[in-house]
Amino acid sequence: MRYDVAVIGGGPSGAVAAAEVSRAGFSTILIERNLDNVKPCGGAIPLGLIEEFGIPSELVEKKLSHMRARSPKGRVIDMRMPNGYVGMVRREKFDAWLRSEAQKAGSVITEGLVKNVTHSGDGFVITTLNDKIPPVQARRVIGADGANSKTADDLEFPPNDLKVIAMQQRFRYTPEIEKFRDIVEIWFDGEVSPDFYGWIFPKADHLAIGTGTEDNHHNLKKLQKRFIEKIGIIEKPYLDEAAKIPMKPRKSFTQEKAILVGDAAGLVTPANGEGIFFAMRSGKIGATAMIEHFNKKAPLANYEKEFRKLYAPIFFGLEVLQSVYYRNDRLRESFVAICADDDVQRITFDSYLYKKMVPAPWKTQMKIFSKNIYHLIKGS
Ligand SMILES: Cc1cc2nc3c(=O)[nH]c(=O)nc-3n(C[C@H](O)[C@H](O)[C@H](O)COP(=O)(O)OP(=O)(O)OC[C@H]3O[C@@H](n4cnc5c(N)ncnc54)[C@H](O)[C@@H]3O)c2cc1C
């Protein structure tokens, strides 16, 4: 059978894209290398995503509105989100649910490691390792196969540039780490990460603790070990996981007959490493463009235009923030100090929860600007 669309990769971006295209009546196959995949991920998602995609409450293990930022010198800023929360999901369950939604919408879900994606006539032929599934013919392709996308390589998309390597360990709750059960902690500390941050995310029955770095000179395992020591945990983790986080959109992620979505396109925001929201939004926007392409011969490039129109300012703002404040401990100290400001917290949480940048009143902007300058000069 020749499908209208083959989606390669069954994480959040691929599952959402497949569901949308199927719902519009186009035959869709989703090929995932491992249907039991446990994607290394903190699983923190904003309220806006939960509402938009109707994520069932049993998948959201924690709803956390209390966050804590910790500076290199150990200064601690407690922050509360009055209008929402960060949801904590476990990717093995979350991804499986999203794929089941795609299946309900009519997508064929198959398991196979995609080995080659090649142009053939007006479409593509996709083959899998050991021909686990017979070669798949499709008119169009959606590459949703993550940071090391095989689809992108085979179809010669521009490279996925800036990649943080991140590592995470899972610890079962013990009395000594009970105190982290209902709070998100973020550590801005050069000993934990020289250019990113360390996180402590509570789940229903474990803590997920991790760190990341862009810098090849740093040994990630050593950074993680130091982080665990600094927190004061002596128990052993029950799971270690690591993966790349592509925090820069590819120069282009659309072609005439194929698009990339999610991590495959490099759609993770700098500074906070948030990728699930952008994976699902890009899956949805990409699928909408694909449907218009079939129905009205609209170019697939509309997807990239729309995504950039909506989110380029957020990517830009966070890239500036990371490049200014994550460079050394003095700057990180200033950054945490600024987080103490109520208006900074409100603006940060409002834009995190719904990805809407609402400009603050002029007086507030001036106050925040002055505080930035003050803390940058003072170094705290
Ligand atoms: C340690 C860590 C912590 C993170 N924490 C967070 C967080 O708390 N919140 C957040 O928003 N983001 C977080 N991220 C980023 C987030 O995990 C990703 O941005 C998100 O998973 C992207 O979704 P995706 O569907 O595009 O790609 P993925 O989730 O990577 O899915 C790609 C899928 O493609 C499959 N695949 C790959 N190659 C092939 C192939 N050749 N053939 C068939 N299938 C293939 C894979 O098995 C996988 O299922 C974190 C990332 C890391 C590494």
Question: How would you describe this structure in keywords?
Answer:
alpha/beta, seven-stranded mixed sheet, FAD/NAD(P)-binding domain, D-Amino Acid Oxidase, Chain A, domain 2, 3 domains, 17 strands, binds flavin-adenine dinucleotide, 380 residues
Shape: globular
Number of strands: 17
- Molecules bound to protein: flavin-adenine dinucleotide
Compute the gyration radius: what is it?
A: 21 Å
Q: In CATH, what is the homologous superfamily of the largest domain?
A: FAD/NAD(P)-binding domain
- CATH topology (fold) name of the largest domain: FAD/NAD(P)-binding domain
Report the total helices.
Answer: 10
Average the pLDDT over all residues and give the rounded result.
Answer: 93
Distance between the termini: 63 Å
The top level CATH class name of the largest domain: Alpha Beta
CATH architecture of the largest domain: 3-Layer(bba) Sandwich
